[in-house]
Amino acid sequence: MTAASNEIHGTSRIVIHDGKLEEFKRLAAQCVEIVRTKDTGTLEYDHFLNADGTECFVHERYRDSAAGLEHMVNIPPMFEPLSKVCTITGEVCGTPTPELREALESAGVPIYTPLTL
C-alpha cells in the first residue's frame, strides 16, 4: 500500500544524553506545542520512547511539501536547546517538491522516494 501521493513522511531518531530525559521531555512538549499552534499541514507528529528512556522515535506526516517546508521554518528554534540534551538524525519518505528537496538536502536529511512495483 502507498500513502497519498502528495504526503510527506518523516522520522526522527533521537538518542537522549545520559541524565537528560526530563529536559528532553520538556523540550519535546514545546516542539509539540509549536506544531499544534503554528504548523497548518502537519497530520501526525507522534513521539515514541524506548523502555529505558534513552531513545525516542518521532513519526511525522505532512499533507504535502508545503506543509513540510512550513514545519522546517517553525521548528528550527528548538534545535539549539535540543542539541544540549540529545542527538537527532532522521529521514524523509515521499516525493518532495524541488523546494522541499533542496531544504532537506541542505539540512543533510536523506530522502527516500516511493518504489513503484
Sequence stretches where pLDDT stays below 50 over 5 or more residues: none
Helix percentage: 25-40%
What class, by secondary structure content?
alpha+beta
- The averaged pLDDT comes out at 96
Give the number of helices: 4
How does the overall form come out from the CA principal axes?
globular
Organism: Kribbella pittospori
Protein name: ABM domain-containing protein
Domain ABM: 14-72
What does this protein look like?
It comes from Kribbella pittospori. InterPro entries: ABM_dom, Dimeric_a/b-barrel. The chain is of the alpha+beta class and 117 residues long. The chain has one domain (8-112): Alpha-Beta Plaits (2-Layer Sandwich). The chain has helices spanning 21-38, 65-74, 79-83, 98-106, and strands at residues 8-16, 42-49, 55-62, 86-93, 111-112. The protein starts with 7 loop residues before the first strand and ends in a 5-residue tail after the last strand.
Write the layout of secondary structure elements.
Blueprint: E1 8-16, H1 21-38, E2 42-49, E3 55-62, H2 65-74, H3 79-83, E4 86-93, H4 98-106, E5 111-112
Parallel strand pairs: 4-5
Antiparallel strand pairs: 1-3, 1-4, 2-3
Quick overview:
By secondary structure, the protein is α+β, with helices and mostly antiparallel strands.
Descriptors for this entry?
4 helices; five-stranded mixed sheet; alpha+beta; 117 residues; Alpha-Beta Plaits
